[in-house]
Structures are given as structure tokens and as C-alpha cells.
Design a protein that fits this description.
Structural class: mainly beta
Shape: globular
Order of helices and strands: EEEEEEEEEE
Strand content: over 45%
Number of strands: 10
Number of helices: 0
Length: 132
């Protein structure tokens, strides 16, 4: 079990997110009840992968569970949810080269509309590609 509020993870030099085997990840980039506690420019970013490093595959698998709050930024990497794994609100936004959800994996992307005033907002040009 990993928990934390007001945290950001910067993955570099081939580091990857790998949550598996019943692990529980409960991390928040900012506190939704008091978003102003972290006023730095990275306040809403939860996971940030090195844009200049080689592409890696991140995964949540094998009955793992995560409650995340923030932006997952993997612009050159693949993020996979599989085997009864999942992520849920209060707010998760994913920017990845590829997002793959297979088996019984689930991910709820977006933000709960009742987020408090002052919660970090992120906007980007949207590109979605479905692959069979």
C-alpha cells in the first residue's frame, strides 16, 4: 500500500510505474479539500515521465487498485490496465502515447464535477485513436 497527498513522481532513466499483485496505490497530486496547499506549477501532475528518455511500458495489473488524483503524463510511453486492475476518481487525466485497457482492467478518466474552486485544471488538444 502506497499513500500520499501533495506528491508528484518524476520517472526518468527508464523508471516505470508497475503496480501489480494486489498492490494498492492511493496518491494525490493535490488535496481536493484544500487545493491551495500546493501552489507550485506541478501541483496537478501526479506522474511525469521523462520526455527525452526511451519509451517504456507502465502497467497496473493483477488485482491491483488505485485511487489517484492528478495528471498522468507519459507522452512517449504506454500505460496498460489489465487483469482486474483499475483507477478511479476523484480526478485522473491521462496523457500517454498509448493507453491499453484489457481483460477486466478499468480506468475512469476525467474529474468529478464537484471538485472545489481552485483545484488545478489542465487542458490540451484531444487526440483519440481506437485500435482493434
Amino acid at each position: 500500500v502506497i499513500t500520499g497527498v501533495g506528491v508528484s513522481f518524476y520517472l526518468m532513466n527508464g523508471a516505470k510505474l508497475d503496480v501489480a499483485g494486489g498492490a494498492e496505490l492511493d496518491v494525490q497530486a493535490y488535496d481536493p479539500a484544500n487545493p491551495s496547499t500546493r501552489p507550485d506549477p506541478f501541483a496537478g501532475i501526479l506522474f511525469f515521465a521523462d520526455r527525452t528518455g526511451s519509451s517504456v511500458s507502465h502497467s497496473l495489473s493483477g488485482n491491483s487498485d488505485s485511487d489517484t488524483n492528478g495528471v498522468v503524463y507519459f507522452p512517449n510511453d504506454q500505460l496498460t490496465y489489465t487483469g482486474n486492475s483499475g483507477s478511479s476518481y476523484p480526478c485522473i487525466k491521462v496523457i500517454a502515447s498509448q493507453l491499453e485497457v484489457t481483460g477486466s482492467g478499468t480506468v475512469t478518466i476525467g474529474c468529478d464535477p464537484s471538485l472545489p474552486t481552485g483545484a488545478p485544471s489542465f487542458e490540451s488538444a484531444l487526440r483519440v485513436k481506437l485500435v482493434e
